[in-house]
Amino acid sequence: MASPTGRLGTDLEPGAVAAWRAHSQRLWGEPFATALDAFRYLGAVQSQEYQPSKLTPAMRTRPDAEGLPFAGVDGVDALIEKGAVIRTHVLRPTWHTVPVEDLRMMLAATSHRVLQVAGTQFRSLGLSEAELLIGDETLAAATSGGRHLLREEASEALAAAGIADPTGLRLIHLLFHAELVSAICSGTPKDGKQTYANFDERVPAGEVAQDEAVRALALRFFSSRGPATVKDFTRWATLKVADAKAAIDGLGLESLKVGERVLYYVQEQPAGRESGPVVDFVQGFDEMMCSYTDTKELVTHHSVPPTRFPGRARFTSVILLDGQVIGSWKATLKRESVLLETWRVRGFTAAEIAALRRGADKLRAWYGKPEMELVLEHDE
């Protein structure tokens, strides 16, 4: 493994790591040909907010229709409907959308740890190991033969099998457990609602050893999200530090030192940054934020003290200035227009306002609206 080199403030300018990550994540630079290419590159897209999550692969992709700034939402919907990508619980106790061919690998790497983390919640809901096993077997059988069940239909099947009160949080956790043990996964949506399908019927066969899976996941993470720390990776994938370090050592990743932290990467630092300020409107759980819980101080904009950032953002979705969080936004769709409300932790220069307007206009076009009302607010 290469020895760490470089220090923030000498070899790296403030904000350089964020700009590097924006290129690694392909938020900047050459866009992908299709949304599926973007999914395959990123590996997993956090998607508990189902509709907004489609923006993550879309904005890293070339336009697939006239007038769009990047891939349209219909293209992402089509991938989910045909099962090319699967929206399920993996990596952490939340939803992710994953290329179908990678799902077994990601579960082999992380599911046992996620189940350990969730154990307390299972017990608090009165779900015993025996009951969870019955739930897994029942759901696998109920979805066999190509049957894709709505949540209500899954609840009925569980009740018929003798599971007590398979509703509310108990139902959610029974489904969650069955996903993590490869009994079920997401199916084709019905009327916009989530369904559940038989895992083995929807996901290509193939076993992956845990150490091989962790190594494959590490390569995917540091290729698409570097530079990042070991803890960024372990928290993203709910892994033990020892397992993550073993994978990194096996891959021989390059590294550099930023302050007191060692960051690993695969993609080299880009030769030059984008000219002028760049503003991106991303969904609230975009991988530009969710991948870096250990180095979160590098995620927020370096021009503003961390204490200026509120504990809870004004809006759910996020405004990035030169790859770092500077504010948040909300879109309200109207008949012929979109209302975009924006809030920033500080005022913008004229060049930054111009970049913000360009970013907002891309969003308007993606929503398919001819008009836009843009509201600009910021802290003094």
Number of strands: 13
Question: Ranges with pLDDT <50 over ≥5 residues?
Answer: 1-10
The helicity comes to: 40-55%
Sheet/helix structural class: alpha+beta
Q: Terminal Cα separation, in Å?
A: 46 Å
Please give the order of strands in the largest beta sheet: 9-10-11-12-13
What is the number of domains? 2
The major pleated sheet works out as: 5 strands, mixed
Quick structural summary:
This is Winged helix DNA-binding protein. The protein has 380 residues and is an alpha+beta fold.
What does this structure look like?
With 380 residues, this protein is α+β, with helices and mostly antiparallel strands. The protein is built from 15 helices and 13 strands.
Question: What key phrases describe this protein's structure?
Answer:
5-stranded mixed sheet; 3-stranded antiparallel sheet; alpha+beta; AlkZ-like; single chain; globular; 380 residues
Topology, pairings included?
Blueprint: H1 16-24, H2 35-42, E1 45-46, H3 50-53, H4 55-58, H5 73-82, E2 85-89, E3 95-99, H6 103-124, H7 129-142, E4 149-150, H8 151-160, H9 168-180, E5 184-186, E6 195-198, H10 199-202, H11 210-225, H12 230-237, H13 241-251, E7 254-258, E8 261-265, E9 279-282, H14 287-290, E10 317-321, E11 324-333, E12 337-344, H15 350-366, E13 371-378
Helix pairs in contact: 6-9, 6-11, 7-9, 11-13, 12-13
